[in-house]
Design goal:
By secondary structure, the protein is an alpha/beta fold. It has two domains: 1-31 and 215-289, no CATH class; 36-194 and 294-442, 3-Layer(aba) Sandwich (Alkaline Phosphatase, subunit A). It is 32% helix and 16% strand. The strands form seven sheets. A seven-stranded mixed beta sheet has the order 7-12-5-17-18-6-19, sandwiched between helices. It has a two-stranded antiparallel ribbon with strand order 1-2. A hairpin with a 2-residue loop joins strand 10 and strand 11 (188-189). The longest helix has 35 residues, at 239-273. The chain is globular.
Length: 461
């Protein structure tokens, strides 16, 4: 490829009503491009963008298996985080952070609802089971308001558990609080997408998805529709970009195959479990592509998030593995009891051990996403290098329902603005939102205050 040949960042592959955004290619980057944000020494030159995501797990964790004993770079990866050992150099484990507005503060029971509602807002949710909900704008939406115009989607809200936006879910608190961590305004939660097929169709719109009755179209890969355009583009790219393009299109095709298998399984379950004529007819339509395997569900959603970041379709996302207070059973890892029930362990060792198994399972799925992010080459580094992925919960110990010493980590180097591979301990009751302000700075979405923030945490760089 000629050194002078460059493509616009917003280049798409097109064909038969299909538009496939492209990943970040070297041919899209101006000569001399650097990674990082305003923190980079060469900040005036055009940069590879940072991404920000928040992963949420419910009911706290078994903190004895989460918290490293040593601080700094010599810490040993604790048992619950074993799956993250390959990423130790990409992690910041952060202790001492608190979400005070998840505490009762005079409002009585309802810690699960408050934990989720306050997690990214740092605001006390109004105790109501009615329509007059109120909390605050979340960190992700503050960021989306600043950088969201640069991408097709200002933000993506993902999850693996549906939930009502009305009704009483926790001691007089609306279900909207328990089921959402992203809030566009103090009264408007951002509903999450839990169906990977619908998410796929949002990211990669195609005429075939609008003509479901035409199985000949629907059963074809969207990559088939853009092959001619892809072939023309490929011939103009250098060897590195050709490989990136092939890997990206191969990943899309592979995900389509997994979606098709999930839909087939769902259709078979409907037909077998409910054989009435009406439901048999309903089963003939395209069913939701939600796998029966919970781990596969998380991984599919995670893969789609990676593609969205890779193609710069969004730079901001949230991902709830389950709703706060979820009592999901984990039979596939030999934990048939409900998660929430087990979290009230009363210091019984067998219950704590099962909670830890659930915690390990969640971390394993998170590690899968990190592996995918790290496999994508981008600029002088990887997609993970150019990301800040927060993982944690609004509850520490599920038995105590405490909201201090929260289990929080950040993965990714933030474009070189984070010094990773460390365990940092902050003073007791440091507001969690102080971390978010520091991360928003690195997204070039600076805010003076967010919820109950009192400043910015240090020791990140």
């Amino acid at each position: 490829m000629s050194e002078s040949l460059r493509f616009p960042r917003r280049t798409f592959l097109r064909g038969l009503g299909t538009a496939v955004a492209l990943p970040m290619l070297e041919a899209m980057l101006p000569l001399g491009t650097v990674t990082g944000s305003a923190f980079a020494a060469e900040g005036k030159r055009k940069r590879v963008p940072n991404r920000l995501a928040f992963f949420y797990v419910p009911n706290g964790v078994h903190m004895a298996g989460w918290t490293p004993k040593a601080t700094g770079g010599t810490f040993e990866v604790p048992p619950i985080l074993t799956a993250l050992k390959p990423f130790k150099g990409d992690l910041l484990l952060l202790s001492g952070l608190t979400q005070d507005k998840a505490r009762p503060n005079g409002d009585g029971p309802g810690d699960h609802a408050r934990a989720a509602a306050a997690f990214l807002t740092g605001c006390q949710p109004r105790k109501t089971g009615g329509a007059n909900i109120r909390v605050g704008v979340s960190a992700d939406q503050q960021c989306a308001a600043r950088v969201g115009t640069l991408t097709r989607f200002a933000s993506l809200e993902l999850g693996c558990e549906e939930g009502s936006q009305s009704g009483n879910c926790d001691s007089g608190y609306s279900c909207a609080y328990s089921n959402n961590i992203s809030w566009k305004s103090e009264s408007q939660p951002m509903s999450k997408e839990v169906d990977p097929r619908l998410l796929f169709e949002r990211l990669f719109p195609s005429i075939a998805t609008k003509q479901v009755k035409s199985s000949a179209l629907y059963n074809r890969s969207i990559i088939d529709f853009v092959l001619e355009d892809a072939s023309l583009l490929r011939g103009k790219l250098g060897a590195t970009d050709q490989r990136k393009l092939d890997e990206y299109l191969g990943a899309i095709r592979e995900i389509e195959g997994r979606l098709t298998r999930a839909e087939k399984e769902a259709k078979e379950r409907k037909t077998e479990d409910k054989p009435s004529p009406e439901l048999k007819k309903a089963a003939e339509t395209i069913p939701p592509a939600i796998p029966s395997d919970y781990g596969e569900h998380i991984r599919l959603m995670g893969d789609l998030l990676v593609l969205a970041f890779q193609a710069d379709l969004t730079r901001v996302s949230t991902f709830m593995f389950a709703n706060e207070g979820s009592n999901r059973s984990y039979k596939h890892i030999d934990v048939p009891e409900g998660h929430h029930d087990l979290s009230h362990h009363g210091n019984e060792k067998w219950k704590q051990e099962k909670v830890e198994k659930i915690n390990r399972f969640h971390v394993e799925q998170f590690a899968y996403v990190l592996k995918k992010l790290k496999a994508v080459r981008e600029g002088a580094g990887t997609l993970l290098d150019n990301s800040m992925i927060v993982y944690g919960s609004g509850i520490s110990d599920g038995n105590r329902h405490n909201h201090d010493e929260l289990p929080i980590l950040v993965a990714g180097k933030g474009g070189g603005t984070l010094k990773t591979g460390r365990h940092v301990r902050y003073p007791k009751n440091t507001p969690l939102n102080n971390l978010y302000l520091a991360l928003l700075d690195r997204m070039e979405a600076k805010e003076d205050k967010l919820g109950d923030s009192t400043g910015r945490v240090g020791e990140l760089a």
